[in-house]
Amino acid sequence: MLRSLRTRAGVAVISVVSVAVLVFFITQLLPGDPARIAAGQYATEEQVAGVRAQYGLDKPIAAQFADYMSALFQLDLGTSIRTGRPVRGNCWTGSPRRWNSGCSPC
Q: Of 53, 74, 79, 105, which is least surrounded by CB within 10 A?
């Protein structure tokens, strides 16, 4: 029983890490500049550079990946570009109806 539990926990950890790695690298392949989008359409180059520095987009990809995984293991999901609030807090302040909809029968 304990062996089965350890195996399942190991598979779960490997699955979560694999999905995190895939998400990181797939978002790197998306077209467009996330700093330009976050700064706004009429932002100057200095403002875009500031956004890049704020979000760590000016670092090499290996450093970005290390920061991403470190924050993920600490359950730090970052700050919402839209609301400016921590994403982790936004996850729990949603409508209870939204959370229950995944558990309701079809």
A: 105
pLDDT digits (tens, 9 = 90+) for 4-38: 999 999 999 999 999 999 999 999 999 988 899 88
Residue 64 makes CB contacts below 8 A (sequence gap 6+) with: 56, 57
In degrees rounded to 5, what are phi and psi of residue 79? Answer: -115, 135
* Global confidence as pTM: 0.71
H/E run at residue 40: none
**Dihedral over alpha carbons 21, 87, 75, 29 (to 10 degrees):** 10
- Residue-wise DSSP of 44-90: -HHHHHHHHHHHTTTS-HHHHHHHHHHHHHTT---B-TTT-SBHHHH
